[in-house]
Amino acid sequence: MNARSGLEHTESTLFERGVPGRSGMQVPECRDGASAIPESLLRKAAPLLPEASEIEVVRHFTRLSRMNFGVDVGMYPLGSCTMKYNPRVCEDAASLEGFAGLHPMLPADRVQGALALMAELEDALAELSGMSGVSLLPAAGAHGELAGMMVIRKALEARGDARKKVLIPDTAHGTNPASCALTGYKVVSVKSDEAGLLDPAAVAAAMDEDVAAIMITNPNTLGLFEKHVFEVAQIVHAKGGLVYGDGANFNAIMGKYRPACLGLDVIHFNLHKTFSTPHGGGGPGSGPIGVVKDLVPYLPVPRVVRGEDGTLALSDAFPESIGRIRTFAGQFLVMVRALAYIRALGASGLARVAERAVLNANYVRARLTGKYHLPYPGTCMHEVVFSDKIQAKNGVHTMDIAKRLMDYGFHPPTVYFPLIVNGAIMIEPTETEDKATLDDFVAAMEAIADEAAVQPDLLHAAPTRTAICRPDEVLAARQPVLTHPAS
Ligand SMILES: *Cc1c(COP(=O)(O)O)cnc(C)c1O
Questions:
Q1: Per-domain residue ranges for the chain?
Q2: Is-same-fold flag (88-344; 347-472)?
């Protein structure tokens, strides 16, 4: 097998187990003895596929699935990604035939229920954020950022204001500067203060009449609440700029306060993170945006509109809109899951989610501080960022700690992000882990810290108990081997 990517521990593949002529099915003979497919379209040689029986195929894929890790298997504290447990009731809703079988080109009169679901979800997100208008169209958080920045650009241009720069704190997710660049803005990085927070003085110094907006993530990627956000918004607004809110961390605050009340003009939501859609491995996401009243005319189209008789439709008739940003009406089944989740929990349930998420992160913070270096001390929100500073003295680094956690049955945290923390270990337990699981996780992290002090080589070799051990990650990314040599 391919030793370079570390696959030598896998069991034999279907190609090796297969036997020529073996099959899991019987294809009936053509009734009149001749194929209906013209001779010119027929294959000249059989395809190079493994020839295997049904049970061999079932066992092969079941075996592969057991080499995988997901939140249904164990705790998945991947910071910033909110890998919470996704309730099965949301999956049930999304797999209802009337939703799952919808064709995107059906006329409005055939999909009134689906449009009502979208309208209700827009209202719920507007209520949670304090925004006046919501578009469900963006396909992911990053796409929401792009759409939101395009809205800001269009709104400023409409008042004859072609500004060129956007302020972004140095703690921001990489998608923020990327979205700005795609919108045609120059990124100006703003340094955080010693507490890891946005510094109003630094924003004031960078703010001028050429700055279109500031992008703020609150809580930020250090898991800290940006307590100067209101003051920062006032500074930016005073010079005619707008405030973009990266709402990927909404899990920490939903139901507790409305971001619009702190001066945000635009916010995106990551439905797949906060509102329960399984999203490891790059499955479909959804990144709706909410905007304040003045920006509503610029939202992307189509928008859900209600006619005088109460019927719903999708409309492109918004002349000031930034236009279409994707095909059809968005990731509909992610919206179904999100509304099911919101309706199942209700207002008080959503607030309790935020409370539990913050409590769990602070429990981990309190238990592990000392064993691990905490670069920004104090209460955190939904995630806590440690560093490898203590372990690095013994030559053990963040990657070794992350790999060793897999031997203890946990998915690693996010590593080496945010960039302003050397050797960052970013842990987001989420609200769906109970205290016993958090205690197991803490015990594993403590054991790893002890191992790092006396047996550093054990960590350099980790993981040793997983199907695939430590691959050469650079080579695996640059020269991926995606096909079996036999094919
Ligand atoms: C996840 C995340 C994003 C991007 O969202 P995607 O849905 O992955 O595109 C942006 N900002 C922050 C802070 C995030 O955690």
A1: 88-344, 347-472
A2: no
Could you tell me the sign of the dihedral formed by the alpha carbons of 243, 247, 252, 258, in that order? Answer: positive
Q: Which CATH class is domain 347-472?
A: alpha beta
Q: Which residues does a 6 A CB cutoff place in the pocket of ligand 1? A: 80, 140-142, 173, 175, 217, 221, 246, 248-249, 270, 285, 287
State the Cα angle at 409 between 73 and 436, rounded to 5°: 80
- pLDDT score, position 284: 87
Closest residue CA from atom 14 of ligand 1: 248
Q: Under CATH, which number does the domain 88-344 receive? A: 3.40.640.10
Tell me the best of 170, 249, 270 to mutate to test the pocket of ligand 1, counting ligand atoms within 8 Å of each CB and taking the most. 270
299 CA from centroid of ligand 1 (Å): 20
Q: What is the pLDDT of residue 475?
A: 92
Write down the pLDDT at residue 185.
98
- Separation between Cα atoms, residue 329 and residue 262, nearest integer Å: 30
Is 474 buried (19+), middle (13-18) or exposed (0-12) by CB count in 10 A?
exposed
Share of the chain above pLDDT 90, in %: 83
Q: From ligand 1's centre to the CA of 179, what distance in Å?
A: 11
Low-confidence ranges of the chain (pLDDT < 70): 1-11, 33, 282, 486-487
Q: What is the pLDDT of residue 33?
A: 65
- Shortest-distance Cα residue to atom 2 of ligand 1: 248
pTM for the model stands at: 0.92
pLDDT at 2: 35
Nearest alpha carbon, ligand 1 atom 3: 141
Q: Which of 322, 298, 318, 267 is nearest to 125 (CA)?
A: 267
Residue minimizing CA distance to atom 7 of ligand 1: 141
